[in-house]
């Protein structure tokens, strides 16, 4: 038996979700976020499909992710959001760095000049995220200076919302206002307007004014909404495995570590060959459900490293080898990333990256 579950990725759902995004942003540029192995969906296959659908800009976190795409034959523009350690890679693999500070800009300028070429860059402004980027107070002068450096082509200007997914968007509005002032001032100083983008998935759905020249959807493409409404999105990921065993236990029998669950009746307990080593969070202990024969079966006892137990009493006919779905649809029932995230006070991003990155992947069209 192979370790853990498999993840079936529906690429036709990706196409439908991209259509939803394009309808919202109209003719604005879509910069597809494929970092973290496309949120656990497999960056190479996801990027291939996105490029085939006309997406010409992708974004990753680090150069290693970008190199993987280039080595797989993907030729779209690739923006690298954070990495500045391997400057040579940007030239070797034709990557687009995001400049966070003047020192990085100078380093890229020197390398481009040495090679007798230019490097396209996007510059980041910190409008309230507090991680990286130029402070608003100095951003205009710094960015204008970078635009004038030898070997630098200022292609884009960007920032990032810290809470566009909240009901109260007042801080997001203030971030957009700050960014807009800087955008206009920079454009006036350099005599043209760079490609400006700040809208993430939440902003695409709920804050149309934030969709400037481009949008950066991530979670949306994978069929998850940061809000309670699904917006017509279709999740790509279905994580499933097959039952390892089905046991009949007497009343009063403890299940798993710590005896946190004890049967209150004669029970059928199914053993699932997946646990926290496979990305199924230990906080799901006595606090989640899986799908067996199209029915919901509660997780009972503590989730183990390799195994999780379900109470399948009353479902009927459950046998060793039956399919069990951890995330996704079976029959008329669906377990969503949002549901699982809500059970353990986290976000859908963590659910799909945790489960998807450790499962064997299969792609369907």
Which class best fits the helix and strand makeup? Answer: alpha/beta
Radius of gyration: 24 Å
- SS elements, strand count: 20
Strand proportion, as a percent range, falls in 25-35%
What oligomeric state is this? single chain
Low-confidence stretches: none
Q: How far do the termini sit from each other?
A: 26 Å
Helix content: 25-40%
What does the overall shape look like? elongated
SS summary, helix count: 11
The average pLDDT is 96
**How many strands, what sense, and barrel or not for the largest sheet?**
10 strands, mixed
Walk me through this protein's architecture:
The chain has 365 residues and is an alpha/beta fold. Helix content is 32%, strand content 25%. The chain has helices spanning 11-25, 35-40, 43-52, 63-71, 87-92, 102-115, 136-147, 170-190, 201-206, 337-343, 348-358; strands at 6-10, 29-33, 57-60, 77-80, 96-99, 119-124, 152-158, 195-199, 214-215, 237-242, 245-249, 254-255, 261-262, 267-272, 289-292, 295-300, 308-311, 323-330, 333-335, 360-364. Strands 1, 10, 11, 14, 15, 16, 17, 18, 19 and 20 form a ten-stranded mixed sheet that branches. An eight-stranded parallel β-barrel has the order 2-3-4-5-6-7-8-9, surrounded by six helices. It has a two-stranded antiparallel sheet with strand order 12-13. Strand 6 (119-124), helix 7 and strand 7 form a beta-alpha-beta unit. It starts with 5 loop residues before the first strand and ends with a strand. The mean pLDDT is 96.
Give a quick precis of the structure.
By secondary structure, this protein is an alpha/beta fold. Helix content is 32%, strand content 25%.
């Amino acid at each position: 038996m192979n370790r853990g579950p498999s993840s079936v990725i529906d690429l036709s759902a990706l196409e439908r979700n991209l259509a939803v995004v394009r309808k919202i942003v109209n003719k604005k540029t879509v910069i597809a976020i494929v970092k973290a192995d496309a949120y656990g969906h497999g960056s190479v296959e996801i990027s291939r499909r996105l490029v085939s659908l006309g997406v010409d800009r992708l974004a990753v976190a680090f150069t290693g992710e970008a190199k993987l795409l280039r080595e797989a034959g993907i030729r779209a523009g690739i923006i690298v959001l954070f990495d500045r350690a391997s400057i040579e890679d940007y030239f070797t693999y034709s990557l687009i760095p995001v400049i966070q500070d003047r020192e990085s800009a100078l380093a890229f300028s020197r390398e481009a000049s040495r090679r007798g070429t230019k490097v396209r860059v996007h510059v980041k402004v910190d409008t309230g995220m507090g991680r990286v980027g130029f402070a608003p107070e100095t951003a205009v002068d710094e960015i204008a200076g970078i635009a004038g450096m030898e070997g630098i082509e200022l292609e884009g200007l960007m920032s990032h919302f810290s809470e566009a997914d909240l009901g109260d968007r007042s801080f997001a509005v203030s971030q957009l206002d700050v960014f807009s002032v800087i955008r206009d001032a920079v454009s006036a100083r350099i005599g043209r307007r760079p490609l400006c983008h700040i809208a993430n998935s939440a902003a695409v759905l709920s804050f149309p004014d934030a969709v400037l020249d481009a949008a950066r959807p991530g979670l949306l493409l994978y069929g998850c909404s940061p809000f309670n409404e699904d917006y017509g999105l279709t999740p790509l990921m279905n994580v499933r495995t097959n039952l390892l065993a089905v046991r009949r236990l007497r009343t009063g029998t403890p299940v798993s570590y710590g005896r946190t669950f004890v049967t209150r009746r004669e029970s059928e307990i199914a053993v699932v060959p997946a646990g926290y080593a496979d990305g199924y969070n230990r906080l799901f202990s006595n606090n989640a459900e899986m799908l067996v024969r199209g029915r919901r079966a509660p997780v009972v006892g503590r989730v183990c490293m390799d195994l999780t137990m379900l109470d399948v009493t009353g479902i009927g006919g459950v046998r060793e080898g039956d399919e069990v779905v951890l995330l996704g649809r079976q029959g008329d029932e669906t377990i969503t990333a949002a549901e699982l995230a809500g059970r353990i006070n986290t976000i859908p991003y963590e659910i799909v990256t945790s489960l998807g990155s450790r499962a064997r992947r299969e792609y369907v069209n």
